[in-house]
From TrEMBL:
Belongs to the LOG family. This is Cytokinin riboside 5'-monophosphate phosphoribohydrolase. Keywords: Cytokinin biosynthesis, Hydrolase. GO terms for molecular function: cytokinin riboside 5'-monophosphate phosphoribohydrolase activity. GO terms for cellular component: cytosol. It comes from the Bacteria. Residues 10-19 have a biased composition (Basic and acidic residues). Pfam families: Lysine_decarbox. It comes from Actinokineospora auranticolor. Residues 1-45 are annotated as: Disordered. Its EC number is 3.2.2.n1. GO terms for biological process: cytokinin biosynthetic process. It catalyses: 9-ribosyl-trans-zeatin 5'-phosphate + H2O = trans-zeatin + D-ribose 5-phosphate; N(6)-(dimethylallyl)adenosine 5'-phosphate + H2O = N(6)-dimethylallyladenine + D-ribose 5-phosphate.
Length: 259
């Protein structure tokens, strides 16, 4: 694997897995389970119960390491998107454009640090001279942090990582993505709706991709009285990079004026 972005497109990562801050490559990457899975899976021998107090210390260490690494990060935006986006896909270029536009506007870009759309955003931010941040996660099928990440932190536990996404972002932008993107999207909306975090915008980028979901939320969820108009207004749907970044800037300015 190369850490030089100039050759990132021509050379592939060796087989690699992240186990928190530990990198496992080649034959050492063949572990059958992940730390998260072993914590959450209640099946099997009961002796794992007695190790949970020690797991708490590891979880605490992840929070401490994450807070320490990100404490001095300037204003930032988290951008989610699919790890399966190919480099030749137009969505990859959109990711680069968004990362670059955020950098030009003075925002760091935070992603999950993986390939696909995440790599595109990190690349765009790095190439534009902005801060490119990747928060990786231990998974059985991911390849580790992409080479365009300037500041990277690897996590064992999803809930620790999610805290970092929320705590150090002023907004979320969601490119087309799968279950992981949907998970982060609705968790963010829930935290904002319930006032667990300061109100910040959630941008759905790509009307063709997100339009069906947006229409369903309006017609079925809002229409059925399960959310209110204010909740629906938390989402902004767009196809324009300048519009997306403008929403972020406007919300940040409003927050600054209130504080």
């Amino acid at each position: 694997m190369t850490n030089n972005p100039e050759t990132a497109e021509s050379e592939e990562h060796p087989r690699e897995r992240q186990r928190g801050p530990v990198t496992l490559r080649r034959g050492r990457s063949d572990e059958a389970t992940t730390t998260d899975q072993r914590l959450l899976d209640s099946r099997g021998p009961s002796d794992w119960v007695h190790t949970d107090p020690w797991r708490v210390l590891r979880i605490q260490a992840e929070f401490v390491e994450g807070f320490g690494a990100l404490a001095e990060v300037p204003r930032a935006v988290t951008v989610f998107g699919s790890a399966r986006t190919k480099r030749e896909d137009p969505e990859y270029q959109l990711g680069r454009d968004i990362g670059a536009a955020l950098a030009d506007a003075g925002f760091a870009s935070i992603t999950g640090g993986g390939p696909g759309a995440m790599e595109a955003v990190n690349r765009g931010a790095s190439e534009a001279g902005g801060l490119s941040i990747g928060l990786g996660i231990e998974l059985p099928f991911e390849q580790g942090l992409n080479p365009w990440v300037d500041l990277g932190v690897n996590f064992r536990y999803f809930f620790t990582r999610k805290t970092m996404f929320i705590k150090y972002s002023q907004a979320f932008i969601c490119l087309p993505g799968g279950f992981g993107t949907l998970d982060e999207l609705f968790e963010a909306l829930t935290l904002v709706q319930t006032k667990k975090v300061t109100k910040f915008p959630v941008v759905l980028f790509g009307t063709e991709y997100w339009g069906g979901l947006y229409d369903w939320l309006r017609s079925s969820v809002l229409g059925g009285g399960k959310i209110g108009e204010k909740d629906m207004a938390l989402l902004h749907l767009t196809d324009d990079v300048s519009d997306a970044v403008g929403v972020v800037e406007k919300a940040y300015q409003a927050w600054g004026d209130a504080h």
